[in-house]
Write a structure and sequence with these properties.
Helices cover 32% and strands 31% of the residues. Helix 2 crosses helix 3. It starts with a strand and ends with a strand. The N terminus is likely disordered.
Length: 174
């Protein structure tokens, strides 16, 4: 969505409950940039959900990245079972755009699904506030899903470049 703010183009991104305004050459609205920097600098707290998987609690927006009842359970139910799985028999390649990749759990579960179902996935994600490496290292998804931690680390070290996690899964995070 492009707006014209005082004859200066302004991009607005809607992410969950946050409205993020990316100002292009607009010095009048620097207050919004301070909000964006505050979100980027906010520390997240690790929480264990009821299924034993981790989520992060963002103290700036006062909410968790995933359901407190189960991060893995939620993503499998919503993103895989009631989303991605509907394409299993219809397409050889599924293209996904996720706005707000957060912890990378949906990416990881999609990768596993692609491998199990022999379906190709081209996955593009947009994450304006990438996790810090210590936050990524603290998440227990690799352990609970019995997958090499290198795959999960690659998901989070992939900004602005395309990587092939397997011959079925191509990932690009912006």
């Amino acid at each position: 969505l492009l707006l014209d703010c005082d004859c200066v183009p302004t991009k607005i991104f809607l992410l969950d409950y946050c409205i993020i305004i990316s100002l292009l050459y607009n010095p009048i609205c620097l207050g919004y940039l301070c909000i964006i920097n505050a979100i980027r600098m906010t520390k997240s707290r690790l929480q264990i959900t009821l299924d034993g998987s981790h989520t992060l609690f963002n103290t700036f927006v006062d909410e968790t990245y995933h359901s407190s009842f189960g991060a893995i359970q939620e993503s499998k139910h919503i993103f895989i079972k009631h989303g991605l799985a509907h394409f299993k028999d219809n397409l050889k390649i599924v293209k996904i755009l996720e706005v707000g990749t957060g912890t990378g759990l949906n990416v990881l579960l999609s990768y596993l699904w692609a491998e199990e179902n022999n379906v190709g996935i081209e996955y593009e994600g947009f994450e304006p506030f990438p996790l810090q490496q210590y936050e990524v290292a603290s998440l227990n998804y690799s352990e609970l899903l019995s997958i090499k931690n290198e795959i999960f680390s690659l998901i989070h070290s992939n900004e602005n470049k395309e990587i092939e996690l397997s011959n079925r899964f191509i990932l690009k995070i912006f």
